[in-house]
Amino acid sequence: xxxxxxxxxxxxxxxxVANEDPVITGICHCTECRRQSGAAWSIVVAVSRDxxxxxxxxxxxxxxxxxxxxxxxxRQFCGNCGSPIVSLAEWAPELAFIKAGTxxxxxxxxxxxxxxxxxALPWALDTSREDRGYFPRGLDTEGADEPSEVQPVSS
Length: 155
Hints:
The protein is mainly β.
C-alpha cells in the first residue's frame, strides 16, 4: 500500500495514487467542504487526476456549485457509508482533492496552506503559522498569501 492510498469507512470504495508525492496538502474552509465534512474545515491532499484510481461499485457523485467560483465541483463519496472520498473541481481540472481522513495513514500529513480563509469560522482560523500560505478566496489569488490579509467572515 502506498503513502496516498486509502478507502472509505466501510471499505467498499478504495483508491490508489501512482505518485507518492502530493501536489498540495491543505485545509479548505469553503462552505461546501465544511458541509461535506461535517466539521469546521476539510483537510485535503491534491494529486494529479490521471494518477488516482478509484474503485468500488458504491462510488457516487454529488455536484455542488461554489458560492464564489460559480463552477461545479464533483464530490465523490461512498454510497454505502457516506464517506467523502475526493473532490474534482472544474476550476482545477488537472487535480483531484482527496479527503485526508480517508488515507490509510495520514500521520505524515502537514498542511502547507489554507484556502477560502474568508469563509472560515472565526474560531477555526489561526494565521500565526508562518510555514503556511493563507488564501482568502481560493488558491490563485494574487498577493493573498500573507496572513495579515486574511479576515475570516462570521457565519
